[in-house]
Every structure is written in C-alpha cells, then in structure tokens.
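Ticket #4471: structure output looks truncated?

Reporter: J.K.
Steps to reproduce: submitted the chain below (598 residues) through the standard prediction queue, then opened the result file.
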Amino acid sequence: MAMVTIRLLGAPVIEYGGAPGRQPRGRKAWALLGYLVLAERPPSRRRLAELFFADAEDPLGALRWTLAELRRAIGGPELLSGDPVVTALDGTTIVDVLALTEPSAEPESLLTVGGDLLEGVELESCPEFESWLLVERRRVAGAIEARLRQNAIALLAAGQSNAAIPFAAKAVEINPYEQGNHELLIRSLAASSDRVGALRQIAICEDLFRRELGIGVSGSLRDAAEVRPRPGPPLTGRAAAVSQLQAGRAAIVAGAVDAGLQCLRQAAALAVQCHDKTLEARALAALGGALVHAIRGHDEEGAIILHEAVLVAEQAGERPTSVLALRELGFIEVQAGRRKTADEWLSKAQALAETDAESAAILGVRGMNSSDRADYPAAFDQLGESAELAARCGDPRQQAWSLSLVGRAHLLRSEYSQAATVLAETLELVRQERWIAFLPWPQALAAELDLYAGKLDTSAEGFEQAWALGCQLNDPCWEGMAGRGLALLHAGRGDYPGATEWLDLALTRASREPDRYQWVHAHVLDTATGTALDRSDGERAQGLASSLASLAARCDLRELQVHAQLHLGRLGDQRATAAARSLSADIDNPALRALAQS
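Returned output as attached by the reporter:
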C-alpha cells in the first residue's frame, strides 16, 4: 500500500506515494481534518457539528457527509469514525505537522517547512474555528521553532557548527523577534570562523529590535560572536582540574560569578588535557548550570555546554552527571515555554534517575512545566511527589521550591486557604535555609493572598520587600512578580495611573533578558491588559491583549490563552469569547471556567 502523506503546513494537500491524488472538496473538509488531527482528545459529533456546520439545515448530516468525503480522500474506510470521532491513522499515513514536531523527525525536513498551518483555509462562518486556528498556528510555529533550535544546539555541542547554521537561520526566519534565535545563529557563524557574518547578524538583530520593538538587545548577543577557546591551563593533571572545579562551584555559591565561571572553564580544559571524561562531564555540567542559574541572559551558551556535558557523560558512563545535565536542559525549555522539548529532556532524565534527590528535582521541573501549561492534575501529582521525596532525602530547598509551585497553582485556582497553608510552609523552609535568592518568589505569592484577604498593609509590605530584594538580586522574574503585585495594590485603591506605571516597569523588568521565564512575562501582560480594560483604555488594552494571545499560544500557556481571549472579547470580539469558553472547558480550574462563562 502506498504511503499517504497529509500536508497541513502551507496549502493543504494529500499525497499518495509522493504525488497528489484525490483531494477533499471544500475548505470545511480541510478545516475539519486539521481540527481532528490536532485535537488533544477526540471531539464529539455534536461538538463538531456546532463548530463547523451550525448554519446547515442538517448539521449532523453535513458532518457525516464531510467525514465520508475525508475517508474517501485519505483512503481508509475505518478512519475518522465513532462518537467521539477518532482519527485512527496508522503507520501508512503521515501527517507533516505531527511528524515534524516529534524527536524522530528527519532534521532536514525541518528546513523545508514553509507556510502557516492550513494556509488559505479561513472560514468566516465558523468564528470559533477561526480563533482556534489562530492559536494553533502560533503553537505549531513555536513547536517547530523549538525543534530547529534543538538541532542547532546539538550540532554546535558536537562541534558541527557549519551544519548548525541552516537550523539556526530557519529558527530566526520563523521567529525573528526572539533574541535567542539570533544568538544561536551568531554562535554558529562565529564557530564556523565567519566573524564577518556573525557581526552582520548582530547588526541585523539590533536594527530589527530597535525598529519593530523599540528596544535594544542584551550584551549576550555581542558575546556570542566571540569564540571563547578553552584556556590553556598553566597547571596540569587531574588534581588541578578537581581543584578548579571545587573552586568554581564554591565561587558560584558565594556569588562571585565571574571568578566561578573562569574556574569552571579552566576545570573543563584541564580535564580534557588529562583525558578524564568523567571529570570533564562534571565540569561542563557545572559550567552549563552556572550559566543558566547564576548569570542572566546566557541560557543559549549554557544549553550548548549542557548538551556537550550529556555527550561526554554518556561516553564516560557518568550517570549522575547525565541526569543533572538533562534536567537542566529541561529547565531551560520550561522557562522558554517550549513544552514538548522540555518534556523530552525531563523524561530522559527521569529514566536515568536512581536517587530520591534526583527524582525530586526532576519532578519539580516537570510539575513546573505541567502547571505553566495549566495541567493541574499532573502538576499536583508531580510537585507533591517532588516535595515528599525532597523531605525524605533531606533537601529543604527542593522541598520549598516544589511547594511554592503547589501554592501558585492553588492561588490560580482561587483555592486561597490551601494556597496560604502551602506558602506558609514554603516561607518557613526558605527562612530556615536563609535562601535569600529564592525568597522574593514565595513572598510575592503570599502578598497576593494577603491582598485578596483585605490585609492591605501586610500585602504592601510583602510586595515591597519582594521588589527590593528582587532588584538587589537583579532577577527579572522576581521583579516582574513583585512589580505586578504593587500594581494590583494601586489598582485596588483606584490609582490607575500608579498601577499603569508599575505594570510598565514590571513588563520591562520581566522581559529584559532573552532567557526570561515566559510564564511570568505573560502573567504580567495579563494583569496589564485587565487593568487597561478596567480604566477603559481600549487602545492600550488591544495591543497588550494581542501580545498576550501571541505569547500564550506560542508557549502553550493554556490558561493565559483563555485570559487573552476573554480580554479580546471585552474589546468586542465575540469570536474570542466563544473561543475562551471552549478552551477553558479542557482546563481543570473551576475558577477559570466560571470566569469564562460569566
């Protein structure tokens, strides 16, 4: 039997053995096929009839005819059947949009992607489908972008910089407003000895961001053009490498980041010199982790080094280092909102984990990913198990980290009593540990609870402390959360100019680095949009809501997608209101569902 390929990217077409054959008739058939293929769970026939054929004399009859038409075109009488409707595609049928976002995708196929999802398939008579399609186009583009980035980083880590260039360039083409994509391309060009090309790409990025976004780029962009050779060590031998690794770790913990990074780079170079793969892997993992956590704006370089750490650790059979590096790679992807690639790294880490401490850390990041995506059942399970394992193995910092995310989830679900209990435990652990670098996060969450409880003075004190400490730590995430909270306080007092000023500051701080935590960025955007609507500033609200809708779709922030659609609905888009209700139905958050139905 000839292989059937369903191409939904660009102008849709069905191919048989590589050649076009019989095609479904009408745009609604294509729209229905795309919806069924990409649906998270099989939809009911009644739902499909309402979505696509509400204007037909016999909606269910029109649906039956269209499904039959699709079965004839694909060549499978058992496909797209039942109620709910199951696609039942087998190994003889390939769907391009699904295949391209899988880890097994042929890398070269990513370079030929062109056009939007279901290009040209617009249905004015189906406004809810139109809203769904807009969200899916952004989500799919984000998934393909993530896969391109993974290929570019892996090739750079393997020393194949020339091969990395087309993947990084394609990521820039898909999303030119993400500085990290430009940075990957610049690093690929620089590593390929094309310094002129790297500097030219810096100039292109600077001009683009200044012209289109009205902002500058971070210093890490220019750093990317400098190929940093590993230093020639003045000392030799394994003892010197171990000493540099220990000194680097200690310096990072003490806050002497530049000195720590220099020691870790030296440790990796010494390990190579003495042919110690185990030590090299540990040094690379420590260096990559430090670039991710100890210094802002260096996630791209950190990801490349962590990839290299995984490769070396596998060669050395260094399981604990593999687990650490894989988890850190997953964390980078979670913060950036690249859900699928995040889950892939974390699944690999979990498969190798053997200790409670390793499992606790991995489950904490997996719970963060699930919570960001508003998969609350999974998040509560993962974060709860993480906290239990951390308590059992005596890791109070991991316990506090995971519990803080449990508290955030309860807060977002308006389960304020449960949130207060969990956050009180979190703050107690953080203070016992004197973990100042993490304190602003639970402080801001607890202050928001105080605000909703009417404890305005206590709330103000909590937000102000979180803001001051976040600024001292120079952490965009903490500053964004605390600034948003201070804006909520001003709005609650009717001081909308003050609230707007704080929200502008929070947005600037939360998004100032290319490796920002996208959930926080979107969370602040959501509050800024709602505040603009409350003060009847439609022009400001429109721009903010559009930015939120795009970001939430690309980063698969499902709950914030609902909020974006509700904001657009308040601005007069009835399609968006219907889309919000539909999207909220699949999210286990009673508070969100009630908001969408109000």
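Triage note (M.O.): checked the attachment and the full token line is present. The longest helix spans residues 127-157.
Status: closed, working as intended.
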